[in-house]
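Field reference: sequence -> structure
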Amino acid sequence: MFEIVKDDLKDFEAALRLQLDSSVAFIDAISEDLVSAGGKRIRPSLAFIAGKMLGAKQESAMTVALAVELLHSASLLHDDLIDNADMRRGKEAAFRRYGNVVSVFSGDFMLAKVLGLLAIANNSEFTALMSQTAADICEAEVLQFQMASLETYSMENYHQIITGKTAVLIKAALEGVAILGGANLEEQHALKEFSLAYGRAFQMQDDYLDLLGDEKQLGKPIGGDLREGKATYTVLKLLLERNSAEAQEILRRHAAGENDVALMQELVQTAGIDIEAKKAIVEEAERAQAALSIFPESEAKQVLMELAQRELERAK
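Structure field:
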């Protein structure tokens, strides 16, 4: 699907390596892991796709792609430590190999590199966008912990969490290129709307599969969110609209019982909430596609439409 930006991504990998170069061996090693692990590079790909759709210079898309990926990578280093994770992209988490201090400061090193890119871009609107993105990510992570700790469950909180955890970085990748590429306000708004809707659809789908997916297809055990005490869309529906005391107890004990995940699945499916969740995902994906209607047909636009279509099909 990202064949259209294949050459851009090659240039991106080289530029990312330069950005992360350090004379300090531990920082350099963590950075090298980031480059060599690669990952899907969804956000950089989206930045380059947006650049092609808008006719922006590659330099503008590259600046945005690097800034967004570095911010994302820094947040992952910090998240792994907070979540006490064992692995990241098939390798032992950085803090487990190098310790907390090295991992935290390596994340801070990446954030410093983001500041450097913002200085080079010299665009106050893009700087404000990246600043707000970083703030949204932090607020979403704390709100998720707060909601679980205080049991302040609400759909409003859930939507703020998934927007901050996933959608705002996608928004930064697309809207950032629109800003640096000189797009008009209507185009900027359209890309913002697409990004938020697509990002929410993507995260809601992930949350759905974490409880109701197939372990063999996912390649990991299901029920991870429940075991961390996180209430996602389907569970929140049980708590808020069905007043399920049983669901509340499973969540409170972090699905510690042998059959708790299976029991929660049964509660969700018996109440028909699995169908409601799929409908909500479809609505977000369709909203994303509708946002692109102002743009003329192009290969780049078609790729964005297909990304949203993928979420539509996964929700069937």
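Note: The beta strands are 87-88, 91-92.
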